[in-house]
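Friendly challenge for the regulars: who can give me the structure tokens for this chain first? No prize, just bragging rights.
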Amino acid sequence: MTKNRVNSIEIDKDEFQNIGHQLIDDISDFIANIKNKPLTPNESPSQLQHILGNTHLPEKGIPAQELLTRATDLLLNHSLFNGHPKFLGYITSSAAPIGALGDLLAASINPNVGAHILSPMATEIEKQTIQWLAEFIGVSTDYGGLLVSGGNMANFTAFLAARTAKSPKNIKENGLSNTSKKLTVYCSKTTHTWIEKAVILFGLGTKSIRWIQTDASNRMDNVILEKTIKKDLDNNCQPIMVIGTAGDVSTGVVDNLKGISAICKTYDIWFHIDGAYGIPAAIIPKYKDLFDGVSEADSIALDPHKWLYSPLEAGCTLVKNPQHLIDTYSSHPEYYNFTTSEDEIAQNFYEYGLQNSRGFRALKVWLSLQQVGKSGYQKLINEDIELSELLFRLAKEHTELEAISQNLSITTFRYVPINGEKDKAYLNKLNELLLNKLQTGGELFLSNAVINEMYALRACVVNFRTTNKDIEEIIKIIIREGRKTHSEILGQKLKN
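First reply, four minutes later:
Bragging rights claimed.
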């Protein structure tokens, strides 16, 4: 009888169960008590390195139980918790617990979702997840796409599809250097920095971007957009892509997507929507008009790990005609034996994006979509928006706060002392110092935005644990710390 291979990496059933049960118990306690923990321990890199220990790679192995116990302690006691109800910084949501369990299951099976033959059920689950996400935001389920790591990769994936679709047909053979016209892309001045990365990495260069001014509501000015396109056409340029934003990361503003769509149709330009943050709000009926035009997009980026509460990493690219993805990414080297049956064609996700080997990101999203359901997401997302509106209202009512903007679930405001300097430079310095204190204090976590040259505190609510009480307490914390910071600045001036 053949004996099992003896090695140090396998864990037998009983030990795996014991370790796993203890880990689940520890995680369950963490989740149950997260609101009572400091949001961050505010430890410096050198402190963390000391805690971690400056040791060499072990010569011999360490028991799994010991390792998991230590790793649990390191992460539960020395991390910033974006699942904390007072974490409103950047756009990282509190993660759905079912997503964590989904990641455990996905990693245990470890399918390579690059080819159907390597991941039969995982591929079908990802295909269904893509259909559900399309339905979620109100576009046709004929859109195709794939799960990627996040917003940058989701937008990059669409960018390359647009470049292939709208560039000269010989671009694959001859490259960009042989194009007779300057390829150009168009976006609002508030567009996320991914577009700069894309034009640099994919050969167009930063001079290919036309940064379009925004109107009074901070949306891309479509009149200026069309004038710029016309001017470029007269100057031997080839417009290939216009990017509309569905939820600007600084203020939450949604561009006039329907208007952008009409312009793109007129001039045969690829219409891409960066909805990484905001587009899930399209599921709420009262915001339907705000997202009018979404269904006309050639491609859409959205991040389930932002406003669908998925654990990192989970981004998504949707493309109206999936053949554009195949035209861009598909290749068939002789060492690929990903055959299909005579009567059915299997989808291989390596033909849809940059990766060949791909993890099973879709499972956690697929599970959450079913656990919460459409009506559940409508409730959660609407509550996040209402909490943001509450924060804006409380800031507007307070004599020491200046409310600046509120769109979707993002509110911006700043601390303004009653009897202090009111010039812009001082208030910018004061609020920057205040934000640094708030981010390291462990009570709450906000980020910043610069609006009309004003340095503002920015709160983005994509957190199903945040309550009205948290918002009210956040106001009190900001006032308390704002007064302290203002006094410290005045004290420092007196010393000098």
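The chain has a mean pLDDT of 94. The chain has 15 helices and eleven strands. Your move, everyone else.
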